[in-house]
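Tyrosine recombinase XerC, pasting as requested.
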Amino acid sequence: MLGEKELSDYLRFCSDNRGLSARTIRAYGDDVSACLARLSGLGIRGLSEVGIDDLRSWLAADEPSHARSSMARRVVAVRGFFAWACERSLIPADPAASLMTPKVQVVLPTVLTSSEARAMMDAADGRASDGAGEPSPRERARSVRDAAIVEMLYATGVRVAELVGMDVNDVDRAQRLVRVRGKGDKQRVVPFGGPADDAVGEWLEKGRPVLAPASGGTGDEVGSDGPDALFLGMRGRRIDQRAVRTVVHEMARLADVPDVGPHALRHSAATHMLDGGADLREVQEMLGHSSLTTTQRYTHVSIGTMRRRYDQPFPGPDGGLRSRAAIPAESVSRGGRGEWSGRLKGDC
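Structure tokens follow.
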């Protein structure tokens, strides 16, 4: 294949020097391979023969069958590959330097309202409490685990992959902090509140010991690192992402709230923090976003809540009703912490 050796070297470079995850490197490899295969079909035999028109031809051929977001990712991967090749003098010039990334429509994230999120957490906690009547100790342990999972997802805003990667030693209950390994193996420390601490404590003390001795089999777990994993599957190994998604969907049904997945809890946590007056940089740090632009999506979600809050009348000094819009925005945003659930921050 055209550029096969160069692509292999580039992917090794991404792994060793850029700290990209195995999933990202695999996606980049697939994207660049597809591009090189197309170029090879056009009769190109060497990377130095590739021009901007050839790349545009590849883009035009693939665009009808791929979403814009997929094409944007492909362009990023191809640009990175040719920039790397040019820097190492493997090609005389970078043909992809002026290749434009397709515009991607910004889709606002799905979020629960604060009352819906509270109902979901309460439903999970209630089932864990009612689980004392379960006939099987393992089923009781499952209920306690599920409550701890949804509480931690909402309290910390972590990605589902970050949750399943947590180890027991990553949780500092005394400080209410958890160490999280994010994209690119970057680490951060995230606080969590009292309800999440209670749920995790219950799981560690009463639920996890029941599942920990089990081993073997396949199902809702992966790997063999059960002794270290914070959350376990029913066979005693580290729980996997599919099982966590099943838990979240089940809790949403139980609480009779819109059907959401783990990522919607992440979106909800971020939006509710902003609604409660959190600084955008605080939310960025909690979520592990490398760019503030990514975090700013949540300001578009929370602005609707803010406007509704401004429009609500409240008692004035003379006993009459007046609009919140008369109050400076800073006063309202910093005064809204009553709706900022204590599940989100350790100091609430």
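Note for the archive: The first strand starts at residue 171 and ends at 172.
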